[in-house]
Structures
1.
Amino acid sequence: MGEKPIKVLLIEDSVFATRHTQKMLAEANGSQIDTELECADHLSTGLKRLAEDRIDIVLLDLTLPDSHDLDTFTRVHAQAPEMPIVVLTGLEDEKLAVEAVHKGAQDYLVKGQLDSNLLKRSILYAIERKQVHEELRKSRECLEELVDERTAQLKKNNEELRKEIAERKQAEKALRRTYEDLEIAHRQLEESQAQLIQTEKMSALGTLVAGTAHELNNPIMGIMNFSAHCKKHTSEQDQLYTVLQDIEHEAKHCAEIVRNLLTFSHAERDDDKAYEKESLAEILGRVLKLLSYRIEKQRILVTQHIADDTPEICMKPNSVQQLILNLATNAFDALEGSEKKEFNVDIHREGEFVQMTIADTGCGIAAESLRSIFDPFFTTKPVGQGTGLGLSVSQGIVKAHGGQISCESEPGAGTKLIILLPIERSKQNEQANTCN
Amino acid sequence: MANITDNGELIDIFYEEAQSLIDEMRQGLSTLSQGQETRDEIVCSSNEPSELSQVALREQSAVLRRLFRCAHIIRSSSRSVGLDGLEKVAGALEKIFKKAGDEKFVMTADFISLLSESVEACQKLLNGAEIVGHKGLLDRLNAVLQPCGG
């Protein structure tokens, strides 16, 4: 056994029983267990001893001078709940002893049927049982703690998982948004590409037109000269005279068409670097004449308010003509399908500037599109109908003149473009021009 | 383990303790009988416990508890040393003392004399004598243990 002897406290009032137990324990000593016996003949002294120093096991007689029956056990057990207790009893009290075991006693021994082996075994088993019981209790507590800990951990993990799921969902949403943005960008790129191709086509067409116009100019001049020569040598009464007049007229018409074509061709524009004083009203008139076919076809009501004191301004007439043509074309496009088809131009002096306001009663421009209208290649027209360059080029022209252009629009009500052009060219602009 | 009867010292302790317990029982019985003599002679079955004063009842109960303890020790010790006769008589007395205490018996002269006879029988048995009519005594004691006996 262990190095330390087992400390046994015998609470027993019979001298004989005490001595008898002592002898039985002494007999057992040296064999397997060593015991140290202490005795108390009253419950009160026994309890006092229990409170003092280490005791390993209590052998308890239930009938004592100061206590009897189950009460004796209850009081010892209450004071030392972890102490193994073996109840000593007579045959007649067996029922009582069994009850004590139910209430936590480790064992009971019947006096008179006792020998040293039985007593020894009982003591050992009682101590062992109590130890196992205690260990069990402790491990149960440990287990409960562990379960609590694990539960808390699980709860925490759960929380983290939930958070992660939320984060992933957020990331997924962001990814989807990025994907959608990319799709939009891709679509825009495709549109831009189509527009570029269109612009390229237009540019090629412009070159072709310019070349053709140049080539046509000489024969037209020939026709005009020849018809004038023939007219000179023909009597006005002659039937042929009116025919010659018609030829001359038609040739002039051809020349005008060619001139207009040249005005709008890049080649023509590139050749013209000179600024000259010109009236905005006059250029406007030219543009409206060019567009007369559309005005008639669309039944557009055109009104002009031109202030009398409006001065001529220093400009590149061909560029300004293109500017007005672009803006008017846009307006007419906007009037397509509109119930009220009005086109109004207002021109007046505004200090050192001339202000031209071009307004239509067309479909208007959505707020989100309004900020992009001057961007190159931005268009709301169907592919093939607009290059998206019109307003961008117009803005370029206005800026080259040292002016300003702005836009106001109300969807469903119409659009207003306000252009400010300086009357005189500033030095800065002149320099910019010579650099051109 | 050596037989207990071979252990002289332990046997001596047994006799010494048993003797003192018998003496204590005699004394206790004498106290009970004094209490009885101060009252009118009463028959157990026809008397109400309330006729005893509370103080007297408490005193009687304390004496019976001491008597019970003496009989209890003698009974369990005599079993250990193998004195069967003594064990039986002491055991019967133990039960009667308990019952008398629990049920608040009223002591009668006859009852006390039966108890005295039993205590003297214990003395004789302790001394090693065989008792004539020992069986009859046990019968009479057991009769008291029957419901409303004595």
2.
Amino acid sequence: MKTLSLRNLQKTYFDPYAGSQVTAVHDVSLDVEEGEFVSVVGPSGCGKTTILNMVAGFIPYSGGEILLDGAAVKGPGPDRGVVFQSFALFPWKTVLDNVGFGPKMRGVPKAERDRIAREYLELAGLSHAADRYPNELSGGMQQRVGVVRALANNPAVLLMDEPFASVDAQTRMTLQEELTRIWQERRPTVIFITHDVAEAVFLANRVVVLSKGRVLDQIRVDLPRPRVWDHLMQDETFKRLSAQVLQMVRSA
Amino acid sequence: MSIVLKLWSAYVRATKRWPIIATIVPFIPVVALWSIVANSGMFPRAFFPAPADVARTFVALTYKGILPDYLQDSLVRLLTGAAIGVALGIPLGLLIGSSKWAHRVCWPVLLFFQAIGDIAWLPILLIWFGFGLTTMTFVIVYTVLFPIVLNTVLGVESVHRDLARAAQSLGASRMRVLWEVTLPGALPNIITGLRNGLGYGWRALIAVEIIVGTSGIGFMMFDARRAGSTVEIILGMIVLGILWYIVDAWILAPIERATGRRWGLVTS
């Protein structure tokens, strides 16, 4: 069953300095099944973040449709959880209150939302950090909080915008492995934006390659789970798929 | 040599335990110099009083109740003005900071009125409202308002756009975003604005009291000029300095540091 559906999505900006229209997204159609993990990969300027921002409702789209469970998307909403490259944790709230923010907005009483938040912190192995403030945590820990904060709100889709781009390489690999583990446990529907081809293939069921505001191609990734870097790095299928995607991105 | 080091070590440990010592000690040479000059007979005593004379006047005026009354009048005026300034300034700053259009429309106007110093309003205010509380309050509010508005705008604009987006994606309405994200995000700047505003307001208040006052520290000083009492004038100046130091260094600055540091918004 498809959850999210983009149909002929288009985005044009008016550039007041140039005095003309600029097209960021030409014509993108994409269906995402419930429980699917889709990576969207492409060179910078291909429109991938613009697409995510439109799906999240942060910016309006100029043409086409975005349907979530059959209803048109308009503006940001709790049915689409977002994980940001900048983490975007509230610095004046403890980790527990950050994770409990979504339930709080839904009017869940304090005791119940603390229970929910603790459950999700445990999922991310962060129970010990519940009472700390975000600036006391490492980048990797902050983004773990960012991920479970979005998940704790039970969104229909999880939108991730290059979430691991600003952490160091070792931490990134750990976070990727944890994300696949959490995905297996909870089966959220995920759209994951990245420019890192190996990351895209490692995480996803399907990789969508974007170029100049259009979908260039898509590849299914049927690698077995759980996925662990130590295994996959040697895996022939993984290597072949990564090379294939890389070639597409570079030709884009 | 070692005796100097021992004294120094004792001083450092003492200031660590009682920080007020670090505030008072630097004034010892200032007061000493003042005392030497005043007692040297270089100037007539009535013209240039000694620290002891001022201290005696301080005790006498406090005992009579004049100084506490005037001090209270001044502080109440400042706090009233500040409260109105905050009540107007924060909402105005939030509006201008969060709306591109409000910013475009209001910003130049705001800078224009900021440039007209508080005292420059006095001539027209005296015609409009006369010598009274309205004029005084107007000037204080005016002085306090601008630093608060400008810093609130700065604070709102310094809040990362992704924070508001994150809150919206977690189900926050526009009002909730304002309350949960914009306001706490701008708070360190708002407090900086309040601190600056109160500092300017305090100075403006004394100036206004000198011109339109019937009570207050500024009035006391100007009234003393008529009587030729240099002691009271100097006492007033010292009271102003000490009071502001207490308010700023012991109340406002720690609050400012606490909000900024705890949230990691200010790197220090």
